[in-house]
Write a structure and sequence with these properties.
By secondary structure, this protein is mainly β. It contains four helices and 26 strands. The radius of gyration is 22 Å and the shape is globular.
Length: 354
Amino acid sequence: MKRLPNFSLIVILSFLFTGLAMPTTAFANSAQTYTVLVGAENVSRASGVMAFFPATLHVHVGDTVLWKQNTHEIHTVTFLAGADLPPLLVPTPNGFTPIGLMLNPQAAFPSAPANGMYDGKTYANSGVMSTDPGNPTQFSLTFTQQGTFNYLCLVHGMMMSGTVVVEAPSANIPSPATVSKQAGLLIKQQLAHANGLFGQAMSKVPPPQHNPDGTTSYTVLIGWSQGQYDLMDFFPSKLVVHPGDTVNFMLSPTNMLAPHTVTFLNGGPDIGFVIPMPNPPGPPVLFINPDVLNPINPGLPLTRNTVFSSGLLDPLGPGPKSWTLTIGDISGDITFQCLLHDTSGMVAALKVVP
């Protein structure tokens, strides 16, 4: 997901640590920094893994854990410490026009104890991170107490969760270098498995239906998920159609969590997901762009003259789960994308043949 506001201009992040090469075993006589990679993706294959690498990490008291964002897809690193799970989206406050939805400040912005010293007893949150330009990419905590501390991503819920086990000084644990090497190997394995799901997704695309008037109705499935594996693509990603045909873009039956759009920009400017609105003296209200939420030019045949968009197709929301488009009197290739995941590779095309 991209085009979130430039958080670096809103808050000052002091979460920058550098991991050093270490032996295979860590000793408790000196504090060390461990790195956890947040998510994994292969943009060229439009595939991702919603997981922390490693998901379970052992450290000593006094060690620091640095979480590094590893995907364009947004994530958070959030320790609830017994608090309720905050929603990602909430209604805008009274007095803001137009009335709509915004990113929950409790989820969107960083929240950490002074100097990053963490005893596991309070809510701590990275805020929304992404590798897209202008967004924070790192978060760190230094653990001051022994114990087992669970965390998750507020965007993807318990499916994307992790654990930090803070050990006694006498415990023998893997070094930061060993942990990073193991995480890298696991990411390669997981992405390879995700790539193997494309054939499964294509096998579930309904066949085209030929209509009495000579036109054809096609179905394009949006997204494909299996556990933590997420294919952020359209199936098929290239489709040959004719003027007068219809294409039904439908959330795939396995896409249970991820919202998407189907958007033909037709050379127009990009559409930002969030519109920051000043809200002094606090942080800005991160208003969800209505042009992402709502359909653009619904019911009109597709042309090259303007933007066409499905609006947000959300498997968890009350709104539509599909969008049907009629091909207008055009020819040639015309691209479309998901406004939330195009930087993750979710871009496809129709080839219109006269």
